[in-house]
């Protein structure tokens, strides 16, 4: 009888330890890949620091880059907002009781156009940055962009669900 109580207490302690360790594990992995919050202050851009450091920009180039990024990020903010609103309308309509195929096609087409605009503006922005560079910096910038494009291409090919 005394052994049975001891076994039950030990089992309860082990279960509590197991649940605690799982909770700590989930908590530590939940934020591992979380991005830092967006900064409202447009003076601080991670990409600006990266490029300025890698390309050894002069003060004048850094000021020009800062201006390019401010205007680009504002344009992109507006496009992303429009895209998000159209996407929300599409999902609401597609998941709602009154699905309309023509309306779905129209909204999807609008999302595609907005996505294309965002891609085009992004690459034109990179081209503007490229124009800021001197001959040596252009070579390094090209190398950075090719590596980033290769990384992004690889990310898109990854499966959505990890295979077991």
Order of helices and strands: HHHHH
Q: Which runs of at least 5 residues are low in confidence (pLDDT < 50)?
A: none
Rg computed from alpha carbons, rounded to a whole number of angstroms: 25 Å
Helix content: over 70%
Named at the architecture level, the CATH assignment of the domain at 64-155 is: Up-down Bundle
Structural class: mainly alpha
How would a textbook summarize the main sheet?
none
- Number of DSSP-assigned strands: 0
Shape: flat
Number of discrete helical segments: 5
User: What is the arithmetic mean of pLDDT?
Assistant: 80
Q: What is the CATH class of the domain at 64-155?
A: Mainly Alpha
Tell me the fraction of residues in β-strands, as a range: under 5%
CATH topology of the domain at 64-155: Four Helix Bundle (Hemerythrin (Met), subunit A)
How far from one another are the termini? 45 Å
In short:
The protein has helices at residues 2-30, 46-55, 59-95, 101-132, 135-157.
Describe the model.
This protein has 164 residues and is an all-alpha fold. The chain has a domain at 64-155: Four Helix Bundle (Hemerythrin (Met), subunit A). 80% of the residues lie in helices and 0% in strands. It contains 5 helices and no strands. The protein has helices at 2-30, 46-55, 59-95, 101-132, 135-157. The chain is flat and about 85 Å long.
């Amino acid at each position: 009888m005394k052994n049975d109580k001891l076994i039950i207490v030990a089992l309860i302690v082990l279960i509590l330890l197991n649940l605690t360790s799982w909770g700590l594990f989930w908590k530590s992995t939940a934020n591992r890949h979380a991005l830092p919050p967006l900064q409202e202050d447009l003076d601080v851009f991670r990409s600006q620091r990266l490029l300025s450091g890698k390309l050894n920009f002069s003060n004048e180039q850094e000021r020009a880059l800062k201006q390019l990024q401010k205007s680009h990020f504002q344009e992109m903010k507006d496009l992303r907002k429009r895209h998000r609103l159209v996407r929300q309308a599409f999902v609401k309509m597609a998941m709602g009781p009154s699905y309309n195929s023509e309306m779905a096609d129209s909204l999807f087409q609008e999302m595609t156009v907005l996505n294309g605009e965002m891609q085009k503006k992004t690459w034109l922005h990179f081209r503007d940055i490229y124009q800021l560079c001197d001959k040596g910096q252009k070579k390094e910038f090209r190398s950075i962009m090719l590596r980033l494009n290769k990384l992004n291409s690889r990310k898109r090919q990854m499966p959505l669900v990890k295979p077991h």
